[in-house]
Design brief:
Blueprint: H1 2-33, H2 36-45, H3 48-57, E1 59-60, H4 62-66, H5 72-75, H6 80-86, E2 88-92, E3 99-103, H7 108-120, E4 125-130, H8 132-161, H9 164-176, H10 183-196, E5 201-207, E6 210-217, E7 220-227, H11 229-243, E8 254-263, E9 269-279, E10 286-292, H12 301-304, H13 308-318, E11 323-328, H14 335-346, E12 353-357, E13 368-371, H15 380-387, E14 394-397, H16 403-414, E15 418-423, H17 428-438, H18 442-448, E16 449-461, E17 466-470, H19 473-489, E18 500-504, E19 515-526, H20 529-537, H21 545-549, H22 556-565, H23 571-578
Parallel strand pairs: 1-4, 3-4, 11-15, 11-16, 12-13, 12-14, 14-15
Antiparallel strand pairs: 2-3, 5-6, 5-10, 6-7, 8-9, 9-10, 16-19, 17-18
Helix pairs in contact: 9-10, 10-11, 15-16, 16-18, 18-20, 19-22, 22-23
């Protein structure tokens, strides 16, 4: 037995070098201290075959080290400099939760100290031994993986901070790498990058050739990448899952909502809410995601596009305690933004403000907001009736769609409440006709109605690539015709016009569109006593325009022309949205 025992000891010395030899020498000293009986028992009961098998398993040659697939998350447990000096590193975590360590054991004291520290942290370690050559190879891989991790972290940081065109470029790049990505992580990153590009909406539109991903930038759709119908199915399931809708329903429209984290240009994280709609298509469903960024709410009317004249007129009616103020315009014209800006300025803590919304797009502290839920039978009429029993001062009705809603809102305005609501019409004058065509009696509407605001959003000229150039004769004639009407009542408006307009060229800053950001063009119709009398005398007249021609009312086109003169937008944009 004894020769075999020392043969094994010598084999260990041969494999492990001086460090392991010192450990074995220490063991031999301990054996010497024991009684002869203990030595005999240990020698004759020792399972040499299993011990030898375990010993061989714990020895990794260079080829075995090369075959290791290290886990970088555990490699970092021992800092690289310490791992190099002590010649020990952690390379994986097996299922039984023991860390696997690789060492030459040339520095046994340091190795024992490190393993002891890990044990104190509750980390048990299974040790494997290799040659210096094997360990050097492992350390080289450690360095490579750390460099790769740093590059990935830097890339991730760039993605987090990406905005505008750089975010669009990353979408294209990320799309090309989709086969290497987890489907859930991939689609979430595509959504986040779409938001950071500046898009207000993200579309996945079903077409014959596949699913086209589009984003709406400054009101205009841009196509980015194309998925095949087959491959997009897995992404559709992930989108449905995070949206909280039924994943097995494809034949009915569904609405969902989710939130995600995104970064601003400084890398600061913020929460973004997203509303999502699924609509059946011919080959597959269509998906539209609307981004709601609470950090982009506006505090000042100037940021929307209100002129000093408009602001003074609006604030005059915001100070009233009764009446109804209507904001009108098509979907996506900025009505909600204007409403929230009004409410934020009225929210001084001295008034009870109640809103009925579908959906609640932004939460405002100090305001009582209520979510309409048609599926549960909670509509605007029901909400308005309940609101009037909540002792409100100011009421916001998200949208007036029916005669019943309009009548309750008008009655509220006539009984001591200031009411704000929206209508989907093309102009302020159309709003009067719409309400009366709903069945609202003119004798109720005219005393309640105080102010009607109409608006559109136009793209702002890119400050980096736009220049002032001479207007063409046609452009000049058009501008002068508008100025003739404008200056009849507002002689100072547009006085800076010198025959020049903006031309845009497109550059990297604006994604080569020539435009960056949007601003509202507005029309504010003040319901004066004279106008009330005219409406009552001719309530269903087909052309209410003549009623306001001889007043200081400025229609959308006039406000647009003033913004062209001031250098905020182009004449082409005014034509695009207001004619």
């Amino acid at each position: 037995m004894q020769p075999l025992f020392f043969l094994i000891i010598n084999a260990g010395v041969y494999f492990f070098g001086k460090g392991f030899q010192s450990v074995l020498s220490e063991k031999r000293k301990k054996f010497a201290k024991k009684t002869v009986l203990n030595i005999i028992i240990k020698v004759f009961t020792f399972d040499f075959e299993n011990w030898m098998a375990d010993l061989i398993k714990s020895i990794l040659d260079l080829q075995a080290v090369k075959e290791i697939q290290p886990d970088f998350s555990v490699l970092k447990i021992i800092p690289r400099d310490l791992a190099k000096s002590a010649q020990i590193l952690i390379f994986s975590t097996p299922k039984r939760k023991y860390l696997k360590a690789l060492t030459t054991n040339n520095h046994p004291e340091e190795v024992r100290r490190i393993l002891h520290q890990l044990e104190n942290k509750g980390l048990m370690t299974e040790v494997f031994y290799t040659t210096v050559e094997g360990f050097d190879f492992a350390m080289e891989r450690y360095s490579q993986m750390q460099n790769q991790a740093e590059q990935i972290a830097q890339k991730h940081l760039e993605q987090q901070k990406a905005e505008g065109k750089s975010a669009i470029d990353l979408i294209q790049e990320f799309f090309e790498q989709r086969e290497d990505k987890d489907p859930g992580d991939f689609i979430k990153e595509m959504i986040r990058l779409a938001f950071q590009s500046g898009a207000s909406d993200l579309h996945f539109q079903s077409e014959d050739e596949g699913i086209q991903m589009k984003i709406r930038l400054d009101g205009v759709l841009h196509s980015l990448v194309l998925f095949s119908h087959q491959e997009f199915w897995k992404y559709m399931q992930k989108i449905k899952f995070i949206s909280g809708v039924k994943m097995n329903i494809e034949y009915l429209p569904q609405d969902g909502r989710f939130s995600f984290e995104a970064s601003d240009r400084n890398g600061v994280q913020k929460k973004v809410d997203a509303r999502i709609n699924f609509m059946p298509g011919i080959k597959s469903e269509n998906v539209v995601i609307r981004f709601l960024d609470a950090s982009k709410t506006i505090d000042h009317f100037e940021e929307i596009g209100f002129s000093a004249y408009h602001i003074a007129l609006l604030k005059k009616y915001m100070q009233k305690t009764t009446g109804i103020i209507i904001i009108t315009g098509p979907t996506g014209s900025g009505k909600t933004t204007t409403l929230y800006t009004i409410l934020k300025q009225l929210n001084d803590g001295t008034k009870k403000i109640i809103t009925l919304e579908d959906p609640i797009e932004y939460k405002i502290s100090g305001i009582q907001q209520s979510q309409i839920n048609y599926d549960k039978g909670y509509d605007y009429e029901t909400g308005l009736k309940a609101t009037l029993r909540q002792d409100p001062d100011i009421i916001l009705v998200g949208e007036t769609r029916t005669k019943e809603t309009a009548q309750i809102a008008i009655n509220a305005a006539l009984t001591g409440h200031l009411v704000f609501t929206t209508l989907h019409t093309n102009s302020v004058l159309d709003s009067l006709s719409r309400l009366m065509n709903m069945g609202v009696e003119p004798y109720l509407l005219t005393p309640a109605l105080q102010l009607v605001i109409g608006q559109r959003l136009v793209r702002k000229a890119c400050p980096h690539c736009s220049t002032r150039e001479d207007a063409t004769p046609e452009e000049n004639a058009e501008i002068l015709a508008h100025l003739e009407h404008i200056q009849k009542f507002h002689p100072d408006f547009g006085s800076s016009y010198q025959g020049k307009v903006l031309r845009t060229k497109g550059c990297e800053h604006c994604n080569h569109s020539g435009y960056s950001g949007r601003i509202a063009i507005l029309e504010l119709l003040e319901i004066t006593d004279d106008l009330r009398a005219k409406i009552l005398n001719n309530p269903y007249g087909q052309d209410l325009t003549e009623m306001v021609k001889e007043s200081d009312f400025l229609p959308l086109q006039d406000d647009g022309i003033l913004k062209v003169i001031s250098g905020e937008t182009t004449l082409e944009e005014i034509h695009r949205v207001s004619y």
